Amino acid sequence: MTDQPHPPLEATPMLSEVPLVQHMLNGDSMQQMILVQVNPGETFTIRTEDGQVRCITGPAHVPMVSPNGTMPPIYVPPGYMSQVVEENGVRKVMVLPQTTEFHPSMPPPPPLHVPQYLPPHPAMLHQHHMYPREMPPHFMHQLPPPQMYSEQGECLPLIQDVQCARNLSPVVSQCSIAMTDSGYPVLLSLSSSLMTFSSHRGLETTFTVEDLRPATAYYIKVCASCGSVKGPSSEVADFTTMCAPPEAPAPPRVILHSKSTLVLQWKAPNDNGSKITGYLLEFDEGKQSAFKEVYFGHAKQYKIVKLTPSTNYAFRIAAKNDIGMSAFSEVMTCCTAGSAPQPPAPPRLSASGVSWLTLEWNIPGGLTAGDTLTYTLEMEEEGTGYGFKPKYNGEELSCTLKGLRRSTSYRFRVLAANAEGRSQPSVPVEFSTTPDKPGAPGRPALRGRVQPRCLHTVWDAPKDDGGSPVTQYVLEMGQNHNDNGWEVVYSGPLREHVCDSLKPGTWYNLRVYCQSAGGQSQASESLTVQTAPVPPGPCQALQLAGKARTKRKELPFNPAVALLAWDGGAPVSQYIVEMSDSTQGPHRTFYQGLETDCSACQLVPGHKYCFWVKAANQAGWGPLSEMYEFSTAPGPPEPCGPPQLAVKTPTCVLASWEIPACNGAEVFEFRMEWGAAEGTLTLTYCGPAPGYEARNLLPATAYYCRVQAVNSVGAGPFGDVAMVTTPPSVPAAVRSVAVVGEDALAESLAGPASCLALRWEEPCSHGAEIIGYNIDFGEQVPISVGKTNHYILENLQPDTTYRVRVQAINGIGVGPFSASLKARTRPLPPEPPTLECAAAGPQSLKLKWGDGPSRGQLSGATHPSSFVNHPGIDCPRLVCIYSGPCHTFKVQRLSEATVYQFSIQAHNEAGVGPLSPLYSFSTSRSPPPQLKAPRVDQLESNHYEVTWEALQSMRGDPIVYTLQLQRGRELEQLYRGPASSYKWHGVVPVCDWRLRVCAGRRCPDGVELWGPYSPSIALPGPEPPAASESVAGSRATSRDGVAPRKDRAITDEQFALLLLLGFAIVAILFAVLIQYFVIK
Fold first, then answer.
1. Is the separation of the CB atoms in 195 and 213 below 8 Å?
2. How far is CA 411 from CA 360, 640, 966, in A?
3. CA 518 from centroid of its chain's CA atoms
4. For residue 625, what is the DSSP state?
5. How far apart are the C-alpha atoms of 191 and 540, rounded to whole Å?
6. How confident is the model at residue 605 (pLDDT cuts 50, 70, 90)?
7. Is the pLDDT of residue 155 over 50?
8. Alpha helices, DSSP H only, in 782-925?
């Protein structure tokens, strides 16, 4: 950077003229203050209007004022540059060093403390200059003395051509400069400011400068350079660019508008060296169509009249001078004035709440189409004194105001506004928010002492009344153990109440809630209180628990239910029972406690006694109950002795006993209990006799017996238990005789139609083991069997009803017969039906048998007897192939031309019948399958070869083929034989001739089975005369290694496939068109 010296310090013009310093404070609104920053070691030189030179040494900020807002010219030495920055709205000029190079051959730079000045160019002496006092730090040597350069090495630039583009786009001017040598920097000056353009280093001696201003004077000079060495600059040459049409003016602006007029004003653009002679103003007539001229003249303001109110108009303007017309300005759109809307109707209340109100209003009348209204809803709160304030501004016809105070009145009015202004407000209306429900009152409290039958209750008002006064308090009461819930005991405006008619010693719950215009509050916290108890009331008179005994008396009672009329509101702590020998005699206590029963002992029989009872609780003793008078009575008799038991028969026993002591009352009844177990005795006899005969007893069974005596006092205790055992007897009757099936027996039945299998349960043996049974099933002699529980009756008549009875036998004798059982033998199984073959196919046989109500079970042989021999076996093995109610069955998957044997049997509820004799049926032979369409090849003219696929022989049967020619509806057989091809000579085919082929099976018996015909194929047409050439060409192609292509006619199936494919493509195209043009 320091290998080359700096050029001499020369004054360089920049920007425009310099304003005077004394103009800083003249108050002109168009003036602009600019600060020039002078760094330390630098000197700023100013030349005033009177010609004096003033030097300012840095560091300092020199204020300068520009009267027209332009930047003053500041001259800097070579190697420096000026930069303009803006801080807080003030523009500041800073002088900064440029990047320079230093060469050892150049003289060293001057020292920092030695300022070197160079006089400015003579053409620029009228400008002010700025020179730095010190050089930047990297300049460490003295500047050389001013050097004088000769004309050698200098070149004067020659202006060859000056051009100016004339069009509506921004004007571009250029000039061409001829230079005597190439590779030189060019310096261009515009109004005392230099711009440097770098020329390319070559042999050209011209340089074109573009992007110049029209009608502007420029100064230019050039210097020679070689590598890093530069020569002195040439003399300054000047030139002036040509004039151009004016620049595009700025869009016009509206300074006044009404319903039918618009006043527009615009500013003059840059004239580009030629004075502006007129302005052209156009507009679109408010129709958004093509622009039309509305004014042309010298004025910069114009008034357009007879316009439509509330209509948008578009304007544009262009300037003209002697050179031509400028481009149009940007389009400016404005609107004429309209009329303000009419006052709307007052708003209406749509809904209200505690903290919100919903208002709605209507559109005011007198509107035109396309008018857009904005509504302003204003609200005034009573008592604030702030007046109406806007709460909503928008285009909706309703509004919900939230965050309002409860139970408060508000005034509302609405205004409408459009682009022309606002309407008058509507008539104010007043609406109020609803009050809220009050808070819960305070918890009820008691005033004074708790009384047994009343409570004085008070409570506090709620802390929050919800915005409306409380109109009513409701006091509710409930008992702790009452399922009926709460009961209203008071309703009114007071905050206290005396609850009376209560029960002493009872727990009560109290709560209160209030009501206002806002609704009902929540219930307060409940108060639980108990009324004071009182002594219990009198007990009821004592009652006996049972009949009186001779020496003891029991007196149980229940004070809460039967004996105590009222407990006084507190639980009873104890009872006292008092007794006296007479009504006036002294009382003595013989029981005291909490139990509700007692026994009076050591009483004298036949004597009168008086009894009283009273109860006590925490409040004290209650009064005595009514007197209870009682006389003792005789006692029950003594227990009887064990009865005497005498056996009369195995089922009858005689019991007798003695009469016990009566204890003061005559015995008039005896009760005897009898049973087979000592713990399960039941009452068998009740009467005055001292004996009883027990009948219908079980033989060989132990029985127990005891007796009780009864007099007028009651029943005495039972006596001791006596025991007796009855002797054995004949067996009991047999039970549960039933007919069972063969599956329930160990052995099989010889014949279900002539046998009955019986089973029964073994009866009671009555003390002697059973040794056998007798079976009676008709008028014949009963059959005797051994000790068993089942038996099979054989040789019976089929389908016959029998009455069967069974009796048991033991060592004592024969027991009674069982109940009669009606049993019926089964009928005989059905005979097999006749089996027939309804239809025979190559792989199936349809069999049919006779109609009838019985179901048929069909079995078939798996080994054919016609073609497979089994030595030593007369009948093939049978396999069941069908079982069901149908009368036909089709046997599938059989072999062709094979004999099968079948047998059938029928079965019903009686069982399975016998098999029928074997039936033999044979399957038929199958015809050959359908062949593919034959292939037709044209060998020569009118010479064809027809080939088709060959089939294998079927089970040794040869295959023959038939070839047919279709001529419209006529058929002609061309060939019949075993070959799979046919050559056709000397025929001229027609376009509708077709060929088809079918295969036939020649059976050993001479019968031929023909299959279906193949699809037909059309004959190829005759070749044209040039066919020989094409054949030769095809043969030549074959010789080159490419097989010739043979044209074949399409078959009917291929034609149908092509037709279906065409329909599908058309449908897809239609779907795409509908999707694109209709749906989208």
1. no
2. 14, 110, 105
3. 41
4. -
5. 139
6. low
7. no
8. none
Token duo for residue 218? 């420029």
Per-residue model confidence (pLDDT) at position 340 = 79
Q: Extract the tokens encoding 751.
A: 């014949």
Give the pLDDT confidence score for residue 6 in this predicted structure. Answer: 37
As given in the structure block, the two tokens for residue 362 are: 């209507």
d(CA 353, CA 521): 17
Structural contact between residues 536 and 569, judged by C-beta atoms closer than 8 angstroms:
no
3-state secondary structure at position 120: coil
Q: How many CB atoms lie within 10 A of CB 721?
A: 15
Cα dihedral 511, 515, 518, 520 sign:
positive
Residues listed for the chain: 1080
CB atoms within 10 A of CB 796: 18
**Beta pairing class for 90-97 and 32-38:** parallel
Q: Which of 173, 114, 161 is nearest to 141 (CA)?
A: 114
179: DSSP letter: -
Please check whether residue 758 is in contact with residue 804, taking contact to mean a CB–CB distance below 8 angstroms. Answer: yes
- Strand, coil or helix: what is 382? coil
Which tens digits make up the pLDDT trace of 923-941? Answer: 988 899 999 999 988 888 7
Rounded to whole angstroms, how far apart are CA atoms 939 and 936? 9
pLDDT of residue 939: 84
CA distance 339 to 416: 12
Burial call 324-363: b when 16+ CB within 10 Å, e when fewer: eebbbbeebebbbbbeebebbebbeeeeeebeebbbebee
- pLDDT category of residue 268 using cuts at 50, 70 and 90: very high
Mean pLDDT taken over the chain: 77
Cβ atoms within 10 Å of 410's Cβ, excluding its own = 19
Task: Supply the pTM of this predicted model.
Answer: 0.32
Q: How far apart are CA 1030 and CA 1022, in angstroms?
A: 13
pLDDT tens-digit profile of 2-60? 343 333 333 333 323 333 333 333 333 345 677 788 887 778 787 776 667 778 877 78
Residue with the two structure tokens 């206290």: 496
Kindly report which listed range (104-108, 687-691, 1000-1004) carries the lowest average pLDDT score: 104-108
25: three-class secondary structure by DSSP: helix
655 and 663 in contact (C-beta within 8 Å)?
no
When pLDDT is averaged across residues 849-854 and rounded to a whole number, the result is 61
- For the chain, helix, strand, coil in percent to 5 are 5, 40, 55
Give the pLDDT confidence score for residue 100 in this predicted structure. Answer: 38
H helical segments located in 95-163: none
Residue among 460, 458, 468, 408 at smallest CA distance from 438: 468
C-alpha to C-alpha distance for 473 and 441, rounded to whole angstroms? 9
Tokens representing 433? 């928010």
7/806: higher pLDDT: 806
- Give Cβ neighbours of residue 939 (< 8 Å, ≥ 6 apart): 945, 983
